[in-house]
Design a protein that fits this description.
The complex is a heterodimer of chains A (103) and B (634). With 103 residues, chain A is mainly alpha-helical. Chain A is 76% helix and 0% strand. In chain A, helix 1 runs antiparallel to helix 2 and helix 2 runs antiparallel to helix 3. Chain A is elongated. Chain B has 26 helices and two strands. A two-stranded antiparallel sheet of chain B has the order 1-2. In chain B, a hairpin with a 2-residue loop joins strand 1 and strand 2. In chain B, helix 4 packs antiparallel against helix 11, helix 11 packs antiparallel against helix 16 and helix 17 runs antiparallel to helix 19. Chain B is globular, with a radius of gyration of 30 Å. Classes of the chains: A mainly alpha (103), B mainly alpha (634). The interface between A and B is medium-sized, with 13 and 13 residues.
């Protein structure tokens, strides 16, 4: 069996991926790219789960990773539906124009 | 027996439900008929109960009828159960008998001269029936807890009916006053029940009285008896808790007759007679009962001498007669008191109902100074009223004479009695004759004050017949005194009681009280039937004293200054500084916060950009992460 990298490496990678996702979500205007950032964050969490599952030699983390993938798929369906609806309404998908909640 | 008792109780309750739920829909006149029929049929059932009791052997005249279990917690067992014994049978007959006649009377009284029904006609009969039901629960209950249910029920019905014409503020105030004073008595009864359960670990009459007879709990006896006395004094309007009864005359006259003369106000006397085994072990409480009764009897009679409102004279007379009953139970003559309770129900009902016909005839005029000369217009009512007044004054061979004589004799001769008690009652008897015939003279004799008359109206038969029947009872009701005493005797000896029984209407005391009462009546007629020059002169020369008595010795004013004024000050402080500034100021911080959230906060933080919200979420997550790192020390 090939010797794999120690757990902290995976956690650091997970943290880096999450930060990239979070930053991208905050600074990009294109909702499709923002979606990709959300997916990056979800997968960063997945990576942590799987890494801990292997480190502790339990199966729970891997199961949760599967759940997260299913939820992510569902979330994309809803999110893309909303984006299409907004596009039909406004002929634009610039998120900064969707600001009716402004106080 | 079970069937009859259940019927006697259920019929007024059904009548109440009918009047309350359907009375306004079916035709309101039907309410009066239904309510009267319900109480009348209940009286029929009561007669059957009485017949059933009297055929039993003397020692077995104590039938317990359990309808349902109600409160059960360990040794605390209070079922819905009724005790049928001679005492409760007598009360059952008085309440339903007098009650049904007054119901019939009220079907006529609650109309105006054109026959139009009062606006609250069905409401009136609903409450009247509910009252009869509550009163029956009170007198039939076999334990203290169920008794308290009836006790509270009659109190609240009394409140509803005093304040029946609540569109006048003074009527509503009179109702509240009665309710509040009665609440003092309710507290007394509640505490007495607590103490009884604490001492004996049970609340049913039979069980408690058996333990009392066996000498248990002698340490608590005086306290229980004094607490019960508070309850009885409030309900029976005895000094110093009498202040509500004169004001209770604000209610319609049938209510005054039924609740505030014949039945509810006698509940206090019934309570003491029912708990006589406790009182017989508490001589101090007995003395207190007798003293309160004697004081009330005398001072109410003096006030009755000075009143100008016809109903208030009769109300103070009720106070005075209740005082007699209290003296009776206070000296151990429980049977005599219950007998007086019954005869008093007869003649006082006639007095009130007669007064009601006069008031109805004069379209609401209650001031005796505006009356006079009604003898020729209402001859039948005049004679009924005069006979009942004579019975009230103890005129020989009328019902009041026998019952009052038993009490006066007991006050002199009983081991608990004294010459002072008996003498004060004799003096009160003389006053009774004077004030009763002052009222008769002012109302019916002399010249008619024609300007106050609204025209000639016949008296409706529904109002006249009950009065005539009750007058017959007021005349002959006293003769079976010996049989009455014999019938009641088992109730008063069953639990080891030693009632004082002085039933001797031809003794020297009887002759003395007969002479005193005739003298009182004669003086009353002499002073007031003629030109009334002597009372006017007397009133002028006694000026201040007469005014003091007329104002009820300023007891109301005293309570106002000593009890009400401090409460008003506290209320003013609570409503002003405390409520407006302290509590109100604190509460108004919350809307201020909400307003800030809705203005400055909203403008600053609700930008509408998704990125800002996301950044806030990340910042929050980061803060939580930092917190855990430092807190748990990872």
């Amino acid at each position: 069996m090939i010797e794999s990298a120690p757990t902290p490496y995976y956690l650091v990678l997970s943290a880096v991926l999450f930060s990239i996702g979070a930053l991208g979500f905050c600074i990009r205007k294109n909702p499709l790219v923002m979606f990709m950032c959300v997916e990056i964050m979800l997968n960063a969490a997945n990576l942590s789960f799987v890494a801990f599952a292997r480190h502790l030699n339990v199966i729970d983390g891997q199961v949760i990773a599967l759940f997260i993938m299913a939820i992510a798929a569902a979330e994309v369906v809803v999110g893309l539906g909303i984006i299409v609806a907004i596009f039909r309404l406004r002929d634009s998908i610039d998120v900064d124009e969707v600001n009716v909640l402004r106080g | 027996m079970t069937t009859w008792v259940t019927l006697a109780l259920a019929l007024p309750l059904l009548g109440f439900l009918y009047c309350a739920l359907f009375g306004w829909r079916v035709g309101r006149a039907a309410s009066g008929v239904a309510a009267s029929a319900a109480v009348g049929a209940s009286f029929g059932a009561a007669l059957a109960v009485a017949a059933g009791v009297s055929v039993l052997p003397e020692s077995e005249r104590f039938v317990t009828i359990t309808i349902a279990s109600w409160l059960t917690a360990g040794s605390f067992i209070a079922p819905i159960a009724f005790l049928v014994d001679p005492l409760s049978t007598v009360m059952l007959l008085v309440v339903t008998g007098v009650g049904s006649l007054i119901h019939v009377y009220a079907t006529g009284y609650m109309r105006d001269h054109h026959g139009h029904l009062d606006l609250g006609y069905n409401r009136f009969f609903a409450f009247l029936n509910l009252f009869v039901f509550s009163m029956l629960v009170l007198v039939l209950a076999n334990n203290f807890v169920l008794l308290m249910v009836g006790w509270g029920g009659v109190g609240v019905c009394s409140y509803f009916l005093i304040a029946f014409w609540f569109d006048k503020p003074e009527n509503a105030r009179a109702g509240s006053k009665a309710f509040i004073v009665n609440a003092i008595g309710d507290v007394g009864l509640l505490l007495a029940c607590f103490l009884i359960f604490w001492t004996f670990r049970k609340v049913d009459f039979d069980g408690v009285f058996r333990e009392v007879a066996a000498g248990q709990g002698s340490g608590a006896m005086t306290n229980i008896a004094l607490l019960l006395l508070i309850a009885a004094a409030a309900k029976s309007a005895q000094f110093p808790l009498h202040v509500w009864l004169p004001d209770a005359m604000a209610g319609p006259t049938p209510v005054s007759a039924l609740i505030h003369a014949a039945t509810m106000v006698t509940a206090g006397v019934y309570l003491i007679a029912r708990t006589h085994p406790i009182y017989e072990h508490a001589p101090l409480a007995m003395a207190a009962v007798a003293s309160i009764g004697a004081v009330t009897a005398f001072f109410a009679a003096t006030i009755a001498l000075t009143q100008t409102n016809l109903k208030r004279v009769v109300a103070y007379s009720t106070l005075s007669q209740l005082g007699y009953m209290f003296v009776g139970v206070g000296v151990g003559a429980f049977g005599a008191s219950i007998f007086h309770l019954m005869t008093h129900a007869f003649f006082k009902a006639v007095l009130f109902l007669g007064a009601g016909i006069v008031i109805h005839h004069l379209a609401g005029q209650e001031d005796m100074r505006q009356m006079g000369g009604l003898r020729s217009r209402l001859p039948v009512v005049y004679w009924c009223f005069a006979i009942a007044a004579a019975a009230n004054a103890g005129f020989p061979l009328l019902s009041g004479f026998f019952s009052k004589d038993e009490i006066v004799s007991a006050a002199f001769l009983s081991p608990h009695g004294s010459a002072i008690l008996g003498g004060s009652l004799l003096l009160t008897s003389a006053l009774t004759g004077i004030y009763m015939f002052r009222a008769v003279s002012l109302t019916f004799h002399g010249t008619s004050n024609a300007h106050s008359h609204t025209g000639d109206h016949g008296v409706a038969g529904s109002m006249l017949w009950p009065v005539l029947l009750l007058t017959v009872l007021a005349v002959v009701g006293g003769f079976p005194y010996a049989q009455f005493g014999k019938f009641l005797h088992p109730s008063l000896t069953h639990w080891g009681g030693h009632p004082v029984e002085v039933a001797n209407p031809v003794g020297s005391i009887a002759i003395a009280s007969g002479i005193v009462s005739i003298a009182g009546i004669a003086v009353g007629l002499w002073l007031y039937a003629g030109d009334r020059a002597i009372p006017r002169r007397l009133g002028r020369s006694l000026g201040g004293l007469a005014e003091t008595v007329r104002a009820g010795y300023y007891i109301d004013a005293f309570y106002g200054a000593v009890l009400l004024a401090p409460v008003r000050v506290i209320a003013l402080i609570s409503s002003g500084p405390v409520d407006n500034f302290l509590i109100g100021g604190f509460v108004s911080l919350f809307p201020a916060f909400a307003r800030w959230m809705g203005s400055e906060f909203r403008h600053t933080f609700q930008t509408g950009y998704v990125r800002h919200y996301a950044a806030a979420i990340f910042a929050g997550a980061a803060l939580i992460a930092i917190f855990f790192v430092y807190r748990i020390g990872i």
